[in-house]
Amino acid sequence: MKVQLCDDFLGHKKDSLVDMPDEQAKALIEQKLAQAAPANPPTGFDEALQAIQGSIDQQLQNATGVITQRVMDEVSKSLRQVKPGIVVGPERRLADPTGGFANLGEFAQAVRRLATHKTSDPRLTSMVRKADGMDETALTDGGALVPTQYANQIYRDVLEESLLFEKARKYPITLGNSLFVPVRSMTELGITAASGGSLGSWLNGDGVAIAPQKPVYNRVQFTLNRWGTLLPVTDELLQDNNVALSNFILDEGGIALAWDLNQAFINGTGFGQPSGILASSALVQAPADAGQVAGTISYTNLVNMKSLLWTAAPGDMSGVVWIANPDAEAQFEQLKDSAGRNLYYAAGTIGQTPTAKLFGIPVIYSYHCPALGDAGDVILADLKQYGVATKAGGQVETAMSMHLYFDAAEVAFRMIYRIDGKVMRQQPLKVPNSPNSRSGFVCIEPRGGGPAS
Prior knowledge:
alpha+beta, hypothetical protein PF0899 fold, seven-stranded mixed beta sheet, 10 helices
């Protein structure tokens, strides 16, 4: 088949007429590198005319390049003379949080095509990262960062699944992996001076010297712990369904992280993970009723818990929640005060509110609370007194590797999150004119050693 070349090809000049096999000719035509030869081949005069036209086109192209370069030079010169304060921003494509991909599945398929077929996608160039000690300049040898928007989706899933995380006091760490937060070190309410008593004093006359005082402070250290997960995904899922892949990665990653955070915030040991509420020396226990049946929760238990709660501003309940084992709800439903009024309202029963209320305080149910009858089956907590430190920005670091499970025809999504959490005040507070010590975290002491039979 004879074709006319649209560009120089294998030693033949542009516009040349070349005979080649039909399959090769059709491929060049599909790639717009050639076109079918005209029915009547050009005469010698036509060829001369084409040569002249080609020369003119080349001269115009050269002239256009010279003019374009001069314009760019003038613009650059003008920009150098711009007054301070005017900044030329980055390219928009670099600021695109999606990386130019419609969804996470499309991104994963682009990485796979590059690894298996060497088909390059320009959208991946800014996402190359070093993985497993391999050369970071070769995407297929290591991995690629998941675009920001999809990593942020995992973070939003964490907020939705972990109400404890959402309500806790946040401390972003911008440099390094550690942060010291000063807190007042009071063992007794109102005793704010190192020498005892208040930092201030009443002045009983003119010229009376003010006694110098030193405040008592302690500091809480947050050190970021690393949480991670590795999610293998089969090649078949990559090939067949972008949307299913996106849902799988975002849902599974976010839910797993939220579950582990809730476990740590309640039961964490503080070693390689956040320190939980039940491990805090600030936790106080309300007494069980005399002869109370094992595994039960009574009206007086809850009233006593409320009497031991301390908030920094008296009456400020904005950060206070009940955290309870879901098995406790059946007993909450039956609780009434001495006048026979209900104390508990399930979600949606009052003004369509989405959160259950007990004594008007929101209830968060968590399977991480101990079994009914154990200390911690119900916790009354002021989450403003629980601190959470994360790396500034707080997002989940997410990357993808093509070769970790190569022999199993799977790719791996890796997620890393750095976080620490702990109770800010490390001991209960004695309060004036009361035999009780109060705290921002209260539970009920064990009742009968376990669930009722």
